[in-house]
Structure formats: structure tokens, C-alpha cells
Design goal:
Layout (H helix, E strand, L loop, with lengths): L1 H21 L1 H11 L11 H7 L11 E3 L6 E3 L22 H35 L3 H39 L1 H10 L1 H23 L7 H33 L14 H5 L4 H30 L3 H22 L3 H14 L1 H8 L4 H25 L13 H15 L9 H7 L13 H23 L3 E2 L5 H25 L5 H4 L3 H22 L4 E2 L10 H27 L4 E3 L3 E2 L10 H29 L23
Antiparallel strand pairs: 1-2, 3-4, 5-6
Helix pairs in contact: 1-8, 2-7, 4-5, 4-8, 4-10, 4-22, 5-6, 5-7, 5-22, 7-8, 8-10, 10-11, 10-12, 10-21, 12-13, 14-15, 14-17, 14-21, 15-17, 17-18, 17-20, 18-20, 21-22
Length: 648
């Protein structure tokens, strides 16, 4: 007993020391943020200042300037943003469009960075579920699933680091003046980012390679705690990266000339930083779930045995559920982000939603529709693995009707892309028929109908092979049916009502529409789970007994996620038009123009294709590392035929 206590004490001490070392960058950053950033950004080195500073400099007046966003005064601590010119010094030429190469490097780094940020969060949740469950066989199953997830991300993490190095090299080579200015502004926290990256790498490798050594007892809790540390570090890294994006779109902490005013927190905490953080967390989680689901589909399609198909069917369902769980609320922070863009600069919002980039949102709407249609199709196919789920098949045609109607409304444009001759012939921008449709309240109504129908499909799936046995099940079913009915009525009524009120009032209709959808998501899902406690099971879930078409739906889901991420990244960058840093540093390169929709679509498609070719290579490496477990190590998923727990 004494040796066990000693081991626990040593384990706690080791964990505390490790946490202290891993979180050291955050501790170091606190004084810098509190003091406004420390060393002047963009100015000469301290030794140069000392040499130049004489007795007469003591009486020199300290120059102050006003923050372009916060409107507070600060001491000028940096040089103005450089005035670049169309020359080879500021924009080196290599007989190709530099922006395209930078676009490619940035997008690939973003794809892999999003993936390796999301997967450890999934691992943390799944491993915690395995620790907390009372069923030991199921606990081992969850533990194995979490290990499978982190194993996939390990190779992807190495590629993320390589792509990050390529991205920095591309910036330094092709945009030296801009990158020099940006790094000078963020100099007080650049070392924090580097240290955090080192800490994340160390934590990830200890977390992965220590899995077997810390799989039981108190050490398992230490291992689980490491996943929390890993995700804290990854999230802080993402927040810092988002601050660069936010500064480029909505600069703060500098004056009109771009001079740093000594407060690094103002530079980080721009007008768009918070909505960007929330939007990218949910987007990364949805994207990561889609990629892991595609991996499971790939392994399912290549499996040789029923046990393997059962395991990867279950893995695909878990990954898809996690991804869609974050996809459903994703439009909410997207709406918040667009609202903040309008609030920061109305012209930016008009460019996004009603001007140069408006038609890209029609493409985005199409991709969102594909995401939800693929999700619903997968769940309908998944009903086939349940005995007793046949009773729900007759409702699918009504769900299809609601989804298609919502999708058609959602993708209907308000204006058309036309030539000057067509505009003249039509007598204005508004089409005589199409101009009556496509307003924002109707589009919000369309997407909220789609989301609400998806929630209803999930509830149907949860009841596939179970019948509620609680005493109040009849009342619960009636209440749920009435709730969904009035939810649809409210969403559709508000969508129609938007045509009869001014545009500035119409924007506010998104709030009650979204509130209605969220009520269905949270309240009705919770009610359904309460009704299913102790439910009568008609038959087991036969994992692996699902159509091949369902796996292609998962691959389609992941591809649509990838394409939409590329599209939204392009939209977010293009809203700055010809500015490196909006209204601070102008882009004077030969490529300071917005590409056509066709060129952008081709470039995004190329990025998607390259990512999936490379990620398939990562998947293939994962199959090489897989080891088959002995027969006695196999643990069944509840309610289905036995399936393997692939060894570590």
C-alpha cells in the first residue's frame, strides 16, 4: 500500500512539473499582455536606441497617437506601415502569380491545422467517456477508438509543421515587406507562439506514446489530463493565429499610419477576433469529424472481414455525429461574424453579401445544402442496421420534401451577375422575377428548416430500434410533435414576413428564427433522450450491416466540408480587396485584384484535390502501423455482433 501511495505521489509531482513546463508560455505571455507588449514593435533594436540617445533626448517630447479602432491614445512605439511599390524588392517576381502560391501554402496549412486541432478534442471526449462508463468492455472500446483517432492525427501533425514552415518561407520570399511589418507588430507574442508550438508537440508525442503505459488506474487520469493540456495549448495557438487574420481585416492597436501604440492586447483583441475564434472552433470540429468519418469509410470499404466492417462502421458513425453536432450550430457564429463585419465597416459587409463577393455565397449555400443532405441520407441508410427501424421509412419522403424546399429557397439569389448590355436591357440590377426573392429572412428560413429537419432525423434515428416505455411517453410524443409543428410554422412565417418590412428591420428576424431552431435542437433532443431511458429494445444494432452507399455519403460529407472551408477562406481574404491590412497597408503588387468566380472555384477545387490526395497517403500510413489484436482482446459494441479492438 505504501509503494502504491509513493507511486501516486511521484505521478502527481511529475504531472505538476509537466503542466508547469507546458503552460510556461502562457505564464510568460501574461506580463507581456498586461504591460502592453514590452519592446516597441517595428522600431530599432534597443542597443541602437541607447547609442543614439543622448542628453538632449531626455527632453524630447513623447509622441502620442489615437488608436484607429479603440480611439484611445497611446505612445507611438513603432514605425509606420511601409509604403510598398510595384517592384521586385517589395514583391519579388518568379514568372508566376505569387498570390496563388501563397494561397495554396496557406490553405493546405489551414486544412491540416484544423484537422490536428479537432482530433485531440475528439480523443479527449471519447477517452473520458471510456473512463466514466461502468461497462469495462465498452470502456476498452472507447479507449481503442480514441487511440485510433490520435494515431491518424500524428502523421498529419508532422505535415502541419512542414506546411507551416513552407508558409513562412513563402511569406518571406514573396511578400517580405508585408511579412516584416506584420511580424514587427506581433513581435511581443511571436516567441509565445513558437514556445506553444513546441509545448504542443511534446504533449502530443507523450500523450500518444504513453497510451499503453498509462492505461489503468490513476495513471489513466494523468493521461486524460494530458489531453486537456494538449487541447488548451492547441486552442491558444489557434487564437493567436486568428489574431493575425483579425488584424488584417479590422486593425486595432495602431494609428492611421500603422504605428504600434504599445498595447499588444488591443492588437490581438480586434473587432472580429471573438467571432473568428468561435466560428473557427466550430468549423474545425465539424471539419475534423468529417475527415475522420471519411477515414472510417475508407477503412470500411477496404475491410475484408465482418468484424473490421463493424468496427469502422461504428467509428464512422461516432465521427459523423461529432462533426454534425458542431455543424448544426455553425451558422450562428457565422451570422455573428457577418454582423460584426457590418458593424466594423458597412462597406465590407455590402461587398460580402450584396456586392462583388455576393455570388460566392450562393456557392456556399449549395455546399451547406450538400452537407445537410449527405448527413440526412447517411442517417436514413443507417436505419437499415437496426431491427424495427422499418416503421420510420415511410416518413423519409416528407423529410426529403422539407429539405429540398429549404435548400431551393436557401440557394435562390436576389440579384444576377449580368453584363452591362443585359443590365441596360433589363432596366436595372433587379430581375423582374428573381428580384422578388432571395432576401435574407427567406434564406435564413430555408437553412433553419433544413437544420430543424436534420434534428428531427437524428431523433428518428435514436428511436430506430427502441420504443419509449416511460409512463408519460404518449404525452411526450404529442408535445414533441406540436413543438416541431409550431417551430416550422414560426420559421416559415418569419421568412415570409421579411418581405413586408424594411431591410434594416428584416435583419433582426434571424434572431427568433435561430432561437426556434436551437430550441428544437436542445429541448427536443433532451426530451427524446429522457423518453428513451429504459426503453424497450426491438432488436440490436447490427454494426457493419449498412449499405456501401452510406460510406460514400460520409466521403461526400467530408469533401463538401473541405471545399466550403476553402471557399470561406477565400471570401474572408477577398473582403480586404486591395489592402494587406485594411485601410492601413495597401497591396501594390501586380495581383492586387479580385479573381473571377471561375478562377477561384478552380483554385479551391485544386486545393481540395491536393489535400485529399495527401490525406489518403496519411490514411495509408495508418494502415501500415495497425496491428491485429489477439482474439481474446476483442470487445463487442453493445447490441451487435462482436467486432475487434485493434491493438495499439
Amino acid at each position: 500500500m505504501g509503494s502504491l501511495t509513493k507511486k501516486k505521489t511521484l505521478a502527481i509531482m511529475a504531472l505538476s512539473a509537466m503542466i508547469g513546463l507546458l503552460l510556461l508560455p502562457i505564464v510568460v505571455s501574461v506580463p507581456a499582455l498586461a504591460s502592453g507588449g514590452g519592446a516597441p514593435a517595428g522600431g530599432p533594436p534597443p542597443d541602437v536606441v541607447k547609442k543614439e540617445g543622448g542628453e538632449g533626448d531626455k527632453d524630447k517630447k513623447i509622441e502620442k497617437a489615437r488608436d484607429v479602432y479603440y480611439k484611445t491614445e497611446g505612445i507611438v512605439s513603432g514605425l509606420p506601415a511601409p509604403k510598398t511599390g510595384d517592384n521586385s524588392k517589395d514583391y519579388p517576381r518568379y514568372n508566376f502569380e505569387s498570390r496563388v502560391l501563397l494561397w495554396f501554402a496557406n490553405q493546405q496549412h489551414l486544412y491540416y491545422g484544423s484537422f490536428v486541432l479537432a482530433v485531440p478534442i475528439f480523443c479527449m471526449v471519447i477517452e473520458f467517456m471510456g473512463v466514466m462508463t461502468k461497462d469495462k468492455a465498452m470502456g476498452k472500446k472507447y479507449d481503442q477508438l480514441a487511440y485510433d483517432f490520435i494515431k491518424i492525427s500524428l502523421t498529419a501533425y508532422s505535415l502541419t509543421a512542414i506546411l507551416g514552415g513552407i508558409l513562412i518561407f513563402t511569406f518571406l520570399t514573396l511578400y517580405p515587406a508585408f511579412f516584416g511589418y506584420l511580424s514587427s507588430i506581433f513581435r511581443p507574442v511571436m516567441h509565445i507562439y513558437a514556445l506553444m508550438f513546441v509545448a504542443e508537440s511534446g504533449t502530443l508525442y507523450i500523450y500518444y506514446y504513453g497510451w499503453d503505459k498509462m492505461k489503468e488506474g490513476f495513471l489513466k487520469w494523468i493521461h486524460l489530463s494530458m489531453s486537456v493540456i494538449l487541447n488548451v495549448i492547441g486552442t491558444v495557438l489557434m487564437f493567436l493565429a486568428n489574431s493575425w487574420i483579425g488584424f488584417m481585416m479590422s486593425p486595432a492597436g495602431v494609428d492611421e499610419q500603422g504605428r504600434f501604440l504599445g498595447n499588444i492586447w488591443h492588437v490581438i483583441h480586434t473587432a472580429l477576433w471573438n467571432p473568428l475564434n468561435v466560428h473557427r472552433i466550430l468549423g474545425n470540429m465539424a471539419f475534423g469529424g468529417g475527415v475522420v468519418a471519411a477515414y472510417a469509410a475508407y477503412r470500411f470499404l477496404s475491410s475484408k472481414t465482418d468484424e473490421e466492417r463493424a468496427h469502422y462502421d461504428w467509428m464512422g458513425y461516432i465521427a459523423m455525429s461529432l462533426g454534425v453536432a458542431f455543424l448544426i450550430p455553425l451558422p450562428l457564429p457565422a451570422t455573428w461574424l457577418m454582423r460584426e463585419v457590418y458593424a466594423y465597416r458597412q462597406q465590407m459587409g455590402i461587398t460580402l453579401m450584396g456586392g462583388l463577393l455576393a455570388w460566392l455565397f450562393i456557392i456556399q449555400a449549395t455546399m451547406i445544402g450538400i452537407l445537410f443532405l449527405s448527413t440526412n441520407y447517411y442517417l436514413w441508410q443507417a436505419l437499415g442496421r437496426m431491427r424495427g427501424a422499418e416503421r420510420f421509412q415511410r416518413w423519409i419522403k416528407y423529410f426529403v420534401f422539407l429539405l429540398v424546399c429549404g435548400f431551393l429557397v436557401f440557394i435562390t439569389p436576389h440579384t444576377m451577375v449580368m453584363t452591362p448590355a443585359e443590365l441596360k436591357a433589363m432596366g436595372g440590377q433587379q430581375h423582374p422575377v428573381l428580384g422578388n426573392y432571395g432576401v435574407m429572412s427567406a434564406k435564413n428560413g430555408g437553412i433553419n428548416v433544413i437544420i430543424t429537419t436534420t434534428v428531427l432525423t437524428f431523433i428518428w434515428y435514436q428511436r430506430g430500434n427502441r420504443v419509449p416505455s416511460v409512463s408519460w411517453s404518449k404525452f411526450g410524443n404529442i408535445f414533441m410533435g406540436v413543438f416541431f409543428f409550431f417551430a416550422y410554422v414560426n420559421i416559415i412565417w418569419l421568412a415570409i414576413y421579411g418581405y413586408f418590412i424594411p431591410a434594416n428591420v428584416r435583419v433582426g428576424l434571424s434572431v427568433p428564427q435561430v432561437a426556434t431552431t436551437l430550441s428544437c435542437l436542445f429541448f427536443m433532443t433532451a426530451l427524446n433522450l429522457s423518453m428513451l431511458k429504459g426503453a424497450k429494445q426491438i432488436g440490436p444494432i447490427e454494426w457493419g450491416k449498412i449499405s456501401v452507399r452510406s460510406q460514400y455519403a460520409l466521403i461526400m460529407l467530408a469533401t463538401a466540408f473541405t471545399w466550403m472551408m476553402g471557399l470561406m477562406g477565400y471570401i474572408r481574404s477577398s473582403v480586404r480587396l486591395f489592402w494587406h491590412v485594411n485601410e492601413i497597408m495597401r497591396d501594390n503588387s501586380p495581383w492586387a485584384y479580385t479573381h473571377t468566380v471561375g478562377f477561384a472555384a478552380n483554385m479551391i477545387s485544386f486545393n481540395v484535390l491536393f489535400f485529399w490526395i495527401s490525406i489518403m497517403f496519411v490514411f495509408w500510413l495508418g494502415t501500415l502501423a495497425a496491428k491485429k489484436a489477439p482474439v481474446e482482446a476483442k470487445a463487442p459494441v453493445p447490441g451487435q455482433a462482436p467486432q475487434p479492438a485493434v491493438g495499439h
